[in-house]
Amino acid sequence: xxxxxxxxxxxxxxxxxxxxxxxxxxxxxxxxxxxxxxxxxxxxxxxxxxxxxxxxxxxxxxxxxxxxxxxxxxxxxxxxxxxxxxxxxxxxxxxxxxxxxxxxxxxxxxxxxxxxxxxxxxxxxxxxxxxxxxxxxxxxxxxxxxxxxxxxxxxxxxxxxxxxxxxxxxxxxxxxxxxxxxxxxxxxxxxxxxxxxxxxxxxxxxxxxxxxxxxxxxxxxxxxxxxxxxxxxxxxxxxxxxxxxxxxxxxxxxxxxxxxxxxxxxxxxxxxxxxxxxxxxxxxxxxxxxxxxxxxxxxxxxxxxxxxxxxxxxxxxxxxxxxxxxxxxxxxxxxxxxxxxxxxxxxxxxxxxxxxxxxxxxxxxxxxxxxxxxxxxxxxxxxxxxxxxxxxxxxxxxxxxxxxxxxxxxxxxxxxxxxxxxxxxxxxxxxxxxxxxxxxxxxxxxxxxxxxxxxxxxxxxxxxxxxxxxxxxxxxxxxxxxxxxxxxxxxxxxxxxxxxxxxxxxxx
Length: 508
Ligand SMILES: [Zn+2]
Prior knowledge:
This protein has 16 helices and 19 strands. It has 508 residues and is an alpha/beta fold. It folds into 2 domains: 19-90 and 274-505, Zn peptidases (Aminopeptidase, 3-Layer(aba) Sandwich); 97-266, Glucose Oxidase, domain 1. The strands form 2 sheets. Strands 1, 2, 9, 13, 14, 15, 16, 17, 18 and 19 form a 10-stranded mixed beta sheet that branches. Helix 4 packs across helix 15. Bound molecules: zinc ion. Zinc ion binds next to helix 10.
C-alpha cells in the first residue's frame, strides 16, 4: 500500500515537466495552417469525389489520396499487412430485376415495371401457390394457425395509398407470420412516383458482413404491386380490381381466387465487397511506452449522390461532415510527423468509412486494431469541426475521464490558438453515442469528441467546401495536436471516471 502511494505522487508531479521537454513543439504546430487546411479539404470535399458514399469510387479515391498523404509524412502503414488501407467486409445485395418476376396465367410481371421489393430481398427461389385477396379494413379473425400457408397474399390498398411505411410494413409482416409465400400490397401512384420508388428500391443494399443480428433465408418477401398489374392478373378471372379497392371503408375480407396459380421468382445477387479505412502510425520514441497508442479519428465517408435539389445539385459534398474532421486529423498527423522527436507513445491516425451507415469502419477497426485494444490509451475524434462559432468547439465526453481535465489544462496553456473547448451543449441528443469514438469508448478507451454542432446544411447538398471556416478548423487541429502530445508523453495513461466506466464500458 505504501509503495503505491509514492507512485501516485510521481504521477501527479511529472507530466507537466515531460510536456515542457518536447522539443520543436511550436514549430511542429506551425505546420498546421489555414491555407494548407483549405487546400486539402478542397480535394476531398470536391464534387469529383461524388459525396464519398460507402462503397463508391469517390470513397476509394479519397482513401487512396489520404493514404498517400500519410505515407508522404513518413508514417508507417497501420493495416495488418503494413499498408495504409485496412479493408473490411460488406455485402452488396441486389434483386436481379431481369431474372425476377411474377408469373400468372398469360402474364409475366416484372420487377421495376410492375413490382417493387420492400423487404425480404434475401429470399431466393421460386414460390408457387394460390392467391388470396384481402380488401377492406379491420382485423381478420381466424382459428387457423397459419391461414395463408401455401398462398401469395395481395392486399388491395386504398386508391390514395402510394407506399409502405414502417407501421404498414409491420402489419404486412404479420401476414408472413401467418404463412403467406409473399405479401404484395397495391400501389396506385402515378408513373413518375412509381419509377422513382422502383429505382430506389432496386439499388443494391449494402450491409456489414459481420455481427448480423438475425438468421437469413426464412423470410418471405413483401412487395409493392402496381394497381394496373393487379388488373392484368384478375381480369381473366372476372374479378374487378377497382371494386375491391373501393371496399377500403368496408369490413375486411379475405378471399381465395379459385383456380389461379402464381409463381414468384426472385433472384438475388449477394456479393462480398470490401470498404476502406486508412491507418497511419507514428512510432512512439520511448521503447517502453511505444506499445501504447493514442488514436486520432475522423470519418472520410459521407452519403454520396441523391436526387437534384432546386439548383440541380445532386452531390452531398459532406464538407463539414466529415471532410472537416478528416483534414483536421491529417493536419495533426503532419504536425506530429514534424516533431524532431516523436511523443513517447505511438500515434495512430485513423480515417474510417461507413460512419454514415452505422459507424461500420470504426467498429471493424476497434475489433481489428493494429495492436491489442487494451494498448490504446485515448481516442480523439473530430466529426464536423468546420462550421458555426469561430472561437469555440464542443468537446463531448469530458465528464467521463480525466481527459476532460487534461483538455482544460492544455487549452489554458495555449491561449494563442484562440479556441476554447466547451461542454456538451446538447446532452439530450446523445452525441456521445453517435460518432466513431463510441466504438473505442465501449471497448474501454477514454475519448474526447470534437464537434461544432449541426446546422442548416447538415446532410444536405449545401454542405459545400466553400462554406468551411478553414481558419477555425486549423486552430481546432492545433488544439488536438497539443492535447495529443501531452497524452503521448504523460507518465500515466488517461483514466475513466469509475461511474462512467461502469455505465459505458461494462454496460451496467
Ligand atoms: Zn459525421
